């Protein structure tokens, strides 16, 4: 099956700890994205990557970091510098385009206490 | 200029009725307008999309109407069903150098009563 997988589905961490969210795709898409979703806020772009070994900050990159060492993988690290990390995190990838239609993974719900 | 304003925030419709969700944008450089459907605890799924050179696109019970001069677009769900109950997001994008940056509306929670 082709698609985007995110793991784990639920993640719990203590305040002050870094945590890494996994995103893998087997769609052979070049571009990948990370979004954060909060209730009533829509989706906000954290980071995106157009090709391996390259990535760009989105609108809310502070407190997050990413890497893109392989085409199929785009992990997101939520650092202790992120002031309000509890949220639903969504990974997406886009098909060759235009239009560059984005397809989303199932998401990871991170709770930091 | 990068915002997409979506309304209403929530919508309740009876089974068989028409659901209408509206979005407005400012940036005339946006070149692609998708709608996403999201069920609780799941990732959004692309529902239907339109380019600005088209005024209407229909796929089954779902229709996008696009008004370029007014910088508005809307989603119409005909014969709404309880299974359509979900949160719907409009978005607008700029295609740049091999990728796109999507700007999302804040979502509309649709409830279709049986």
Description:
The complex is a heterodimer of chains A (113) and B (114). Chain A is an all-beta fold and 113 residues long. Chain A has no helices and eleven strands. Chain A has strands spanning 4-7, 10-13, 19-25, 31-37, 43-51, 54-57, 64-66, 76-78, 87-94, 102-104, 108-112. The model of chain A has no long low-confidence stretch (mean pLDDT 92). With 114 residues, chain B is mainly beta. Chain B has no helices and eleven strands. Chain B has strands spanning 4-7, 10-14, 19-25, 33-38, 45-50, 56-59, 62-67, 72-77, 86-96, 99-104, 108-113. In chain B, the strands form two sheets. In chain B, strands 2, 4, 5, 9, 10 and 11 form a six-stranded mixed β-sheet that branches. The mean pLDDT of chain B is 93. Classes of the chains: A mainly beta (113), B mainly beta (114).
List keywords for this structure.
heterodimer, A: 113 residues, mainly beta, seven-stranded mixed sheet, four-stranded antiparallel sheet, 0% helix, B: 114 residues, six-stranded mixed sheet, five-stranded antiparallel sheet, 59% strand
